[in-house]
């Protein structure tokens, strides 16, 4: 009976096997208690439910995605710091973390950073900004959007639960079988990993479909594809990548699950299993995934560099084609992730050359951004600082990428820290800096007040310095042959570099702490940072043409577009901020609890499968599909915002706008900026 | 900045629905239907990737018999042929149902042909179930070899899709009972029809690659 109720779950699942695990689990539990307690104390449950959890507004869903990603970022950065500390003391010594625990750390760090930090971060930013840039009122399928958020969050919750109950996988973020098969990894760790990934990849597939349809069908009249902001182009490309690249991951993880649960032989050593099928499918997803992660950053830089250089984006068309070529090429290079796995030299050569080709469109982009800055009126805002650091560091990372694309060289540094240095070099200055600049850039649009500038610069300095210190030494030790994922090492020559890397990790931790402080001071001083007028950076695209924060319907009237930088052009022609002659009722999608129900039941489904609690598997699956089916019988899915309310909201804003003193370009970062910038002459 | 007049977007073509809604509503419904149908096409592309992964896995595992029974011992080509006929016929009746829905508007005829579709789907599923049981009785269980894992996964995933389609049909009958054949129900039927035809196409791949090639080799 107990076994029926709880499956494999028992007292031995509790994290009392090591002090570090106990502390980590206590932090998670304590964090959850503090969150629940403070919501109760602030009497926030009703508001949380009706304004956030059941909301299908793309802006709120976007913000919730970013919140998820920040929580996960904090955990994964702390894990990185723990690993760096271990390696700093691991010369000829077991250090303070046993090998199995160290393996859990690098597995969760990688899994979280890719699937639960990077993906929710970029999807959140797109969710918030892309429909606004397109001049749309929402995405095409708002309820599906909220289900996607629910599934991704369910995966993230499973990751957090795995800290408290049972041990996580030790198979790395790629989870290669046969190691992850039942015979070598009998615990629940791999199962946690499988279901967390499966949930999030289903959510991401739906996001891809949603974004692609939104871009094809919901652009404002006159906005042809080649008048879209570049950020939206990258959204289109990553959506197509998600539509085609997520299913292979889903298939690979589910086949691994079938091996583990149903005794099948897809990837086992015996009875005809073939682990290379897993590796191929995983990287058929994994390589496009690399570009799903980096293209959004390219999109953000294209926006911020143009805005803060006060110039039209140089070579818009070439940037579009470069983006599209990268997206297409990303499907042709997956094999470079396993040059050493025994295929013919000529096969390696083909994939090596294809990989090097990607450097061409990427180079085009870097030149386009540089030429956008050339003779522009550059303002060194926080996003601009990130963009500058990115352009230098990303070229370094790209150069080491071209080195790795050569199979001969790859054999030398395969499985060393050189590779770790390379992909962190692409993902931190590329993806993370891009997302952090997006956070600084669109935060005032989302919440109506700017983030503290000084702290923004401190965060930037900590991230850049921390990154350089933490990863440049890894290039050297990697070239010297230090294997990645080492819990202990025996070469004295590596040791000094490990100290430097630890210092870098400490700086990155300071960056994380600074982000918390920045958010705190900005919220406290929000009145002096307000930009209700809505255009604090002298923006060029449609999202800056409305109030900050935007009204729930985004645009009182859908704008008509006839150029790339539609809003900037309107400002030049003095036709911006014109009140519409007439207001209409605006239908908006009504709130729905389906996304939340899918989140809870999806998470329960994954948890029950992990622990073999079969009755809960059945119940949660029924709730999941039942809620979607019941929803399809609900015809009351729209809500009307009456024209009177629209008029009142808009007139209030336009009045405030007319009373806002425009600030000079140079004073953009002072408290004088209330959301309106005087055009420099 | 110039603004557009509400409800007068670019005109949408290609989706015909029979209803008596006023023209402005019709326009809106059409735009929504177009978005939903386009989204469903995109979903099908994504679903097709799932099947292509399963096909690729199957192809690489053709010889992974591990000493266990192979296609010649396990496959009943007659049963597979009957399944093919049932599914192809169901696609035809599904097409008829959609045509009646879009051009005739007769609820009775539309429903009749969708019911026939459902019955043929059930025939397909019971034949397939019978095949699986027969395979297992001859020792062809999925845990026996890599090839058997791959075949059960490929055929089983298709079977699960057909089951989903059948349940979806049942749900749609309930929707017709509640709402009649209104525009929303019609676009849902159209998506269901796309799904159903898609499964037919996939089955042709399974029949040729798994059954025919298996029996020949």
TrEMBL record, chain A:
Keyword annotations of the record: Cell membrane, Copper, Electron transport, Heme, Iron, Membrane, Metal-binding, Respiratory chain, Transmembrane, Transmembrane helix, Transport
Cell division found in the keyword field: no
Entry membrane topology: Multi-pass membrane protein
InterPro entries listed in its UniProt record: Cyt_c_oxase-like_su1_dom, Cyt_c_oxase-like_su1_sf, Cyt_C_Oxase_1, Cyt_c_Oxase_su1_BS
Membrane-spanning segments: 16-42, 63-85, 105-126, 147-168, 192-216, 228-258, 278-301, 313-335, 347-364, 385-405, 417-442, 454-477, 497-520, 588-607, 613-630
Cell location: Cell membrane
GO CC terms of this entry: plasma membrane
Primary location class: membrane
Any single GO BP term: aerobic respiration
Residue intervals of the Cytochrome oxidase subunit I profile domain: 43-562
Signal peptide: none
GO MF term set: cytochrome bo3 ubiquinol oxidase activity; cytochrome-c oxidase activity; heme binding; metal ion binding
Gene3D superfamilies, per database record: Cytochrome c oxidase-like, subunit I domain (1.20.210.10)
Family membership noted in the UniProt record: Belongs to the heme-copper respiratory oxidase family.
Protein name: Cytochrome bo(3) ubiquinol oxidase subunit 1
Gene: cyoB
UniProtKB/TrEMBL annotation, chain B:
Region described as Disordered: 1-26
A Pfam family matched in the record: COX3
PANTHER family: CYTOCHROME BO(3) UBIQUINOL OXIDASE SUBUNIT 3, CYTOCHROME C OXIDASE SUBUNIT III
Bilayer disposition of the protein: Multi-pass membrane protein
Domain Heme-copper oxidase subunit III family profile: 38-215
UniProt similarity note: Belongs to the cytochrome c oxidase subunit 3 family.
Source organism phylogeny: Bacteria, Pseudomonadati, Pseudomonadota, Alphaproteobacteria, Acetobacterales
Transmembrane segments: 36-59, 79-99, 111-130, 150-173, 194-216
Keyword line: Cell membrane, Membrane, Oxidoreductase, Transmembrane, Transmembrane helix
Biological source species: Swaminathania salitolerans
One cellular component (GO) term of this entry: plasma membrane
Known role: Cytochrome bo(3) ubiquinol terminal oxidase is the component of the aerobic respiratory chain of E.coli that predominates when cells are grown at high aeration. Has proton pump activity across the membrane in addition to electron transfer, pumping 2 protons/electron.
InterPro entries named in the record: Cyt_c/ubiquinol_Oxase_su3, Cyt_c_oxidase-like_su3, Cyt_c_oxidase_su3-like_sf, Cyt_c_oxidase_su3_a-hlx, Ubiquinol_oxase_su3_dom
Any single biological process term in GO: aerobic electron transport chain
Name assigned to this protein: Cytochrome bo(3) ubiquinol oxidase subunit 3
Location within or outside the cell: Cell membrane
């Amino acid at each position: 009976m107990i076994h029926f109720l709880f499956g494999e779950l028992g007292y031995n699942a509790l994290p009392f096997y090591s002090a570090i695990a106990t502390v980590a689990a206590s932090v998670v539990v304590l964090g959850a208690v503090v969150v629940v307690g403070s919501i109760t104390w602030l009497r926030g449950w009703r508001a949380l439910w009706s304004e956030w959890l059941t909301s299908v507004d793309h802006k709120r869903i976007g913000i919730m995605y970013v919140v998820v990603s920040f929580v996960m970022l904090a955990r994964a950065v702390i894990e990185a710091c723990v690993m760096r500390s271990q390696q700093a003391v691991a010369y000829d010594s077991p250090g303070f973390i046993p090998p199995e625990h160290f393996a859990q750390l690098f597995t969760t760090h990688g899994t979280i950073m890719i699937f639960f930090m990077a993906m929710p971060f970029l999807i959140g930013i797109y969710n918030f900004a892309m429909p606004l840039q397109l001049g749309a009122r929402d995405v095409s399928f708002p309820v599906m959007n909220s289900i996607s958020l629910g599934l991704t969050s369910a995966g993230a919750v499973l990751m957090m639960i795995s800290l408290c109950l049972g041990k996580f996988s030790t198979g790395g973020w790629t989870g290669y079988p046969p190691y992850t098969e039942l015979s070598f990894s009998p615990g629940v760790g791999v199962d946690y990993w499988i279901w967390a990934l499966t949930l999030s990849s289903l959510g991401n597939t739906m996001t891809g479909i949603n974004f692609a349809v939104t871009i094809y069908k919901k652009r404002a009249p006159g906005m042809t594809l080649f008048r879209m902001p570049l950020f939206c182009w990258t959204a289109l490309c990553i959506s197509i990548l998600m539509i085609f690249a997520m299913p292979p991951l889903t298939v690979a993880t589910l086949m691994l699950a079938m091996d583990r649960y149903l005794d099948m032989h897809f990837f086992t050593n015996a009875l005809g299993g073939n682990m290379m099928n897993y590796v191929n499918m995983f990287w058929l997803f994994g390589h496009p995934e690399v570009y799903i992660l980096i293209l959004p950053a390219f999109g953000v830089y294209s926006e911020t560099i143009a805005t803060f250089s006060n110039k039209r984006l140089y070579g818009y068309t070439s940037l579009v084609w470069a983006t599209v070529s990268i997206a297409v090429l990303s499907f042709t290079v997956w094999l470079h992730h396993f040059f050493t796995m025994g295929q013919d030299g000529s096969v390696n050569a083909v994939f090596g050359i294809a990989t090097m080709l990607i450097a061409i469109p990427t180079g085009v982009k870097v030149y386009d951004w540089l030429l956008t800055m050339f003779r522009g009126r550059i303002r060194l805002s926080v996003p601009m600082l990130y963009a500058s650091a990115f352009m230098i560091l990303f070229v370094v990372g790209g150069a080491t990428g071209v080195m790795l694309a050569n199979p001969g060289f790859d054999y030398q540094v395969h499985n060393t820290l050189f590779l770790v240095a390379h992909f962190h070099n692409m993902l931190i200055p590329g993806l993370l800096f891009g997302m952090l600049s997006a956070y600084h850039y669109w935060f005032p649009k989302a919440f109506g007040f700017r983030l503290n500038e000084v702290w923004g610069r401190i965060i930037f300095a900590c991230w850049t310095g921390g990154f350089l210190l933490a990863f440049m030494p890894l290039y050297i030790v990697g070239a010297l042959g230090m294997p990645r994922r080492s819990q202990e090492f025996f070469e004295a020559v590596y040791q000094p570099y490990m100290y430097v890397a630890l210092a870098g990790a400490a700086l990155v931790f300071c960056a994380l702490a600074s982000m918390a402080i920045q958010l705190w001071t900005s919220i406290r001083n929000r009145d002096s940072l307000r930009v209700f007028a809505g255009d604090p950076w002298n923006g060029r695209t449609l999202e800056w043409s409305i109030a900050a924060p935007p009204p729930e319907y985004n645009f009182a009237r859908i704008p008509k577009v006839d150029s790339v930088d539609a809003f900037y052009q309107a400002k030049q022609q003095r036709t911006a901020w014109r009140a519409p002659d007439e207001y209409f009722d605006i239908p908006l999608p009504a709130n729905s609890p389906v996304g939340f129900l899918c989140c809870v039941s999806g998470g329960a489904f994954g948890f029950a499968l992990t622990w073999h609690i079969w009755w809960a598997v059945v119940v949660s699956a029924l709730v999941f599909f039942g809620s979607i089916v019941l929803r399809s019988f609900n015809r009351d899915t729209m809500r009307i915002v009456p024209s009177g309310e629209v008029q009142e909201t808009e007139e209030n804003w336009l009045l405030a706008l007319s009373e806002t003193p425009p600030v000079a370009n140079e004073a953009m970062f002072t408290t004088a900026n209330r959301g309106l910038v005087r055009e420099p002459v | 900045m110039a603004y557009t007049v509400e409800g007068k977007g670019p005109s949408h073509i290609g989706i015909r629905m029979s209803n008596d809604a006023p023209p402005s509503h019709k326009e809106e419904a059409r735009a929504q239907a177009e978005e939903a149908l386009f989204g469903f096409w995109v979903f099908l592309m994504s679903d097709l990737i799932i099947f292509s992964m399963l096909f690729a896995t199957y192809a690489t595992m053709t010889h992974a018999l591990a000493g266990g029974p192979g296609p010649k011992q396990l496959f009943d080509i007659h049963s597979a042929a009957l399944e093919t006929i049932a599914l192809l016929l169901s696609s035809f009746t599904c097409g008829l149902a959609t045509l009646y829905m879009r051009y005739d508007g007769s609820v009775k005829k539309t429903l009749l042909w969708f019911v026939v579709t459902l019955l043929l789907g059930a025939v397909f599923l019971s034949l397939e179930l019978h095949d699986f049981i027969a395979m297992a009785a001859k020792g062809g269980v999925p845990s026996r070899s890599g090839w058997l894992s791959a075949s059960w996964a490929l055929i089983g995933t298709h079977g699960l899709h057909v089951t989903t389609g059948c349940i979806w049909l049942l749900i749609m009958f309930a929707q017709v009972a509640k709402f009649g054949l209104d525009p929303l129900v019609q676009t849902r039927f159209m998506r269901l029809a796309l799904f159903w035809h898609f499964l037919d196409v996939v089955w042709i791949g399974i029949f040729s690659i798994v059954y025919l090639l298996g029996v020949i080799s």
